[in-house]
Design goal:
The chain is an alpha+beta fold. It is 49% helix and 14% strand.
Length: 85
């Protein structure tokens, strides 16, 4: 079972899906928080009751980091792990 399959909460899965989509839209291997924050208006549309979009983005990136999807390089910089995205 993958970590994703273990997530039963639909909202949590939705956020992970949305962040994975954003990462796939950014074509470079290394991404910054600023790159991802550019998608905040879209994420706000998808999750209109969330008033802390940037914090939620960082939280989801930590989950993806902990599960080997991205590598935290430092100071808001992440590297996509090939084959896991």
């Amino acid at each position: 079972m993958t970590f994703y399959e273990g997530i039963k909460d639909v909202d949590s899965r939705g956020w992970l899906n949305d962040i994975l989509f954003v990462l796939s839209e950014i074509k470079s291997e290394v991404v910054t928080l600023d790159d991802i924050y550019m998608f905040a208006p879209l994420l706000k549309k998808l999750h209109p009751t969330n008033n802390n979009i940037q914090a939620k983005i960082r939280q989801q990136l930590q989950i993806l980091r902990d599960n080997g999807v991205v590598e935290f390089i430092g100071r808001g910089i992440y590297k996509k792990i090939e084959g896991n995205l």
